[in-house]
Amino acid sequence: MTQIPSTGMVGGSRDEVPARVGRATGEDKVMSDDVRVWIEQKLCTGDGLCVQYAPEVFEFGEDGLAYVKQKAEGELLTDGEQADVPAGLRLDVIDAADGCPGNCIHVVRTADGVEVAGPDAA
Ligand code: SF4
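A: This is the predicted complex of the input protein with iron/sulfur cluster.
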């Protein structure tokens, strides 16, 4: 897997993000479904990979851990709260979950809550 530098850049240039690392299995199905995302903050390493992949969705909190943004207000969601993922950002969010070194980004299908990317995905 391609490594992303662990320091320095938050919400930086998309040109610096390496090629996607999404799974081959089931991805087409995932991409057609609405999904939601949440972060298990206690496992977050604060490396910032998710913020690099999808700065529209993830942001660092004052504690140095990554949080999901509340879509309208720009506020950060608390531990375990879920947010809808815009269709155009699904792949970026799934890639972030697949590459998350803390294994703590959960992407679940909106319709039935089944985890499609993250530590509890089949
Ligand atoms: S990729 Fe995972 S471990 Fe890294 S900052 Fe984001 S949520 Fe935390």
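Residues 32 and 87 are 9 Å apart (CA to CA). Residues 90-99 form the longest helix (10 residues).
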